[in-house]
Amino acid sequence: MLRTIRLTLAVIFFAFITLLFLDFTGTLHAWFGWMAKIQFLPAVLALNIGVVLFLAVLTLVFGRIYCSVICPLGVFQDIVSWLSAKRKKNRFHYSPVLKWLRYGVLGVFVLAIIGGLNSFVVLLAPYSSYGRIVSSLFSPLYQWANNGLAYLAERADSYAFYETDVWMKSLPTLLIATVTLVVLIVLAWRGGRTYCNTICPVGTVLGFLSKYSLLKPVIDTKKCNSCGLCARNCKASCINIKAHEIDYSRCVACMDCINKCRKGAITYTRRKPASAAVSQETSVAPEQVNDARRAFLSTTAVFAATAALKAQEKKVDGGLAVIEDKKIPERATPITPPGSLSARHFAQHCTACQLCVSVCPNQVLRPSSDLTKLMQPEMSYERGYCRPECAKCAEVCPTDAIHLTSLAEKSAIQIGHAVWIKENCICITDKMECGNCARHCPAGAIQMVPSDPEDEASIKIPVVNAERCTGCGACENLCPSRPFSAIYVEGHVMHRTV
After folding, report:
1. How many helices and strands, by DSSP H and E, does the chain display?
2. Residues 492, 310: contact at Cβ < 8 Å?
3. Which SUPFAM superfamilies does the protein's record reference (predicted)?
4. The whole model's pTM is what?
5. Contact yes or no for 197/97 (Cβ under 8 A)
6. Structural domain boundaries of the chain?
7. Phi and psi of 379, rounded to 5°?
């Protein structure tokens, strides 16, 4: 019964979290977006102490239920392991815990978070790893299937489906997602939860707490006949049948051992309640202290970034945007989404799960290829621009790396400013009137003025008011100049209010 309940909940969480990454319309997030927000690492980076404490208490009561029910990467490994069991049954065996590896990886992971080495952090984050796999590998298949249905529906005079562009957003992210998928499949096929109990930092943290959980599988030595069936079916390889012991730091509370035991010798119950109560008291307090310390460090970093970049704001505030003679519109500063506050804040809180990339209706967001912020989303306007009425990225972000309170707030945020490239503009190269950028600027920040101030009839060229420009990219996206736009958006390290 317990295993059935666990499997039912795991299937529900896994299915809907997967659909969150596949749903390019963003419709499901209104109902099931909370499933992304209760993932452990996103909750930590969002400084969501309530969720972190909830998951800690959940683990202290039930064991690593999070790993077997809520975490999509854990459930994915269970699916692979289940498929492997169809070929070879009773294939697992007890293996000693590799503490040096588990806590070594955790230590490096924590140091990477503190040191801002986000590229390493996002590689190991379990929720983000699964998100990249789905958005990079499974989402194109889902979209192609949708386009096929849209084609058939159109032939039947139905518009229940509509076509969407399928394109590769980032080659490095695609390669990393592919390698991650292959490694996970190999490990899960051969060893079940090997990744969770040796590499995953979230599994190590929750494993430490689960040693003191109130409820756990317990072996009744009077009933056990040492047949070893439980150990051979334990995908966590944590049952030492010779000593009649279970390593609760690795047990993911899957209940498979209880279901397999023919003697009823394993029950999910309390074990040494007195010592467990003491352990809970001693384990929860450090977690609370660590959360408070992490919150203090992250908040301090945000204010430090604000102070350090204050002078840089003055360099580009006010007046008209500088007209630079550039042939290639290379951005000196990448553009981060409205609501991300600053490049540093975004880098510290984003787990590169690709959820915002998946739901962006204008195809503005894509994973970065820069090693310092690898796979974290950045904005580019080749396929669309950031529309004032859209806030999908902020709605789905589980870590509050992108946070908007309203569309009015978004319209007042300046994420960059437009720069005109004189040599690319058809007003100059072709001596013809255009004004496309000025007509489509939502902020009215671009005006067409005579190229010759003394001749009102001369060809008009665009002039950008940097104080009004929000950096939405409409001008860059809709500029008819090819192959490079004659006007592009230069990002701001620190976002401003206009």
Report:
1. 25, 10
2. no
3. 4Fe-4S ferredoxins
4. 0.79
5. yes
6. 1-270, 414-427+434-497
7. -100, 140
